[in-house]
Design goal:
The protein is of the alpha+beta class and 250 residues long. The protein is built from 11 helices and 4 strands. The protein has helices at 19-35, 58-78, 95-111, 125-128, 140-145, 148-154, 174-185, 195-204, 209-216, 220-227, 234-242; strands at residues 2-7, 39-46, 49-55, 89-93. The protein has a 4-stranded antiparallel sheet, with helices on both faces. A hairpin with a 2-residue loop joins strand 2 (39-46) and strand 3 (49-55). The longest helix is centred in the first third of the chain and has 21 residues, at 58-78. The chain starts with a strand and ends in an 8-residue tail after the last helix.
Length: 250
C-alpha cells in the first residue's frame, strides 16, 4: 500500500524551520520507517507542513507518522519551542497516482518560493535526481517506480545541470564548499561526517592542504589522511558547485 501523507510539523516558528530541526526530522523519519518496514518514497517541506509518500502496511505507516510527530514534539520542547501538531491527513493512492503524489511532495519548497525543485534542499528531489547521497533517504525504490526526468519536468524544473567540469573557475570560499559538502550528505557543515568530502571537494577546486588544515582545525597529516583514496560523492558536490540552484545550501 502507498499513502500520501500531510503532516503539520514545522509550524510558523522560525526555530522549527531551521536546518538542524529539519535534518533531525528526516533522520527520525528514516529510523521510524526502518523499524516498521515502511519505505519513505518521497518527502518535501513547506513553511508549515511536511509532505510524505510512504509505502508499507497501512497500520505501520500510521505508527511511523505517529512516532515521528511525538518525537518531534518532544524535541521541540527541549528547545523551549511549542509545536502544535495537527492530525495527519492520509490518502491511499494507486500506482497511477504515484507520479502526481511525488511531484506534490517536491513542490513543497517551490510553493514556499524556491526557484524550482532543485533550488532548495528540503525535498527528496535532489536525491531522486542523483545530486545528493544522504543517510536519511534512499531514492532507489522511488527510481524503480517513477521516471526522475518526468518528475523534474512536472515539478517545474529547468534544464538539468551540465556535467563536470563546471564552467567557472575554482577557489570558491571554503565556508561555501564546507556547506556544499554537508548538504550533499544531508548533514550540517559542522558535522565531521562531511569533512572527508569537503577535503576532496576543496582540493578539486584548487585549495591546498595548508589552507584546509586551519579551516577544519585539524593537522595537515589528518587532512592528507582524509584526502587519500577516492571519494564517491565528489562528483555530486561538484555538480552543486557548478549549478546555482544546487548551490543553495543550508
Amino acid at each position: 500500500m502507498i499513502e500520501r501523507v500531510l503532516c503539520d510539523l514545522t509550524g510558523q516558528i522560525q526555530g522549527l524551520s531551521g536546518a538542524l530541526f529539519r535534518y533531525e526530522v528526516l533522520e527520525r523519519l528514516q529510523k521510524a520507517a526502518s523499524r516498521r518496514d515502511v519505505t519513505v518514497l518521497a518527502f518535501g517541506f513547506s513553511s508549515n507542513e511536511l509532505r510524505l509518500v510512504l509505502e508499507g502496511n497501512p497500520h505501520q505507516i500510521s505508527n511511523v507518522v505517529r512516532g515521528l510527530k511525538t518525537g518531534t514534539t518532544r524535541a521541540a520542547r527541549k528547545w523551549n519551542l511549542r509545536l502544535n501538531a495537527c492530525p495527519s491527513d492520509h490518502h491511499p493512492i494507486g500506482r497511477a497516482q504515484l507520479l502526481d503524489a511525488v511531484v506534490w511532495t517536491h513542490l513543497g519548497p517551490v510553493d514556499d518560493g524556491a526557484q524550482g525543485p532543485l533550488a532548495n534542499p528540503w525535498s527528496s528531489h535532489r536525491d531522486l535526481m542523483g545530486f545528493r547521497d544522504a543517510g536519511f533517504f534512499d531514492a532507489t525504490r522511488l527510481r524503480e517506480l517513477v521516471d526522475p526526468r518526468t518528475v523534474h519536468t512536472l515539478a517545474g524544473g529547468a534544464t538539468l545541470p551540465p556535467g563536470w567540469p563546471p564552467k567557472h573557475g575554482g577557489l570558491e570560499d571554503l565556508s561555501f564548499l564546507l556547506r556544499v559538502a554537508g548538504a550533499v550528505l544531508g548533514v550540517l557543515p559542522a558535522d565531521r561526517r562531511c569533512f572527508r568530502l569537503f577535503v576532496h571537494l576543496a582540493r578539486a577546486r584548487g585549495w591546498s592542504t595548508c589552507d584546509l588544515a586551519p579551516a577544519l582545525a585539524l593537522s595537515k597529516r589528518r587532512i592528507r589522511q582524509l584526502a587519500m583514496g577516492d571519494e564517491p560523492r565528489l562528483q555530486l558536490a561538484l555538480y552543486a558547485v557548478a549549478d546555482s540552484r544546487l548551490a543553495r545550501v543550508p
